[in-house]
Amino acid sequence: MTNLFDFSADELDQILQAPGAVLKGAAVVDGEHGGIRFLREATAGSLAIRKAREHENDFVRSVALALRDKGEADAAAEAEAAANPAARVGVAAAAAATREAAALGRPRDPEAEAAHAVELTATVVTLLRARAEEEDVVAYTEWLQRIGARVAGAVRTREGGFFGKRVKVSATEQAYLDRLAAAVRSPV
Q1: Which tens digits make up the pLDDT trace of 95-111?
Q2: Which structural domain range is residue 136 located in?
């Protein structure tokens, strides 16, 4: 089994970011907006990530558990920062807060999010092919594709305008899933 401790902090960060990037890319790629839509897609993706905690592959299971632990640590850090605002004083903290505030009102660029997810997936797969066991690479890439497919299929989309038919996966979502599959199959 491939061990997460075999990777540097930056490499591990990329491995842990890929599932979320795939989820986000699939959720925004079709450009559709709405609270219910977002909730259904986020729930479908989160469920696929959460179910991986019981995955038959040890590597995928360890990644899912590391994601849970990272989320808990991030929540604890946010609670600490909220309880003690003076702890965030400093140039780096001020710069981070400024970037965060600037990003809040910015509209999402669906194509940029999808491209980022595909690029990150390709980078991580290349990294894993070089350093991980083949069965772990296959399980991880299948998991990423499953996350994308679940999010894309979570909400029916109307294609062809108001009188168009509703489809489970839109053409833009399918194109994203195809790009994701290509990134998994071929080296960068």
Answers
A1: 777 677 666 655 568 88
A2: 4-72+110-185
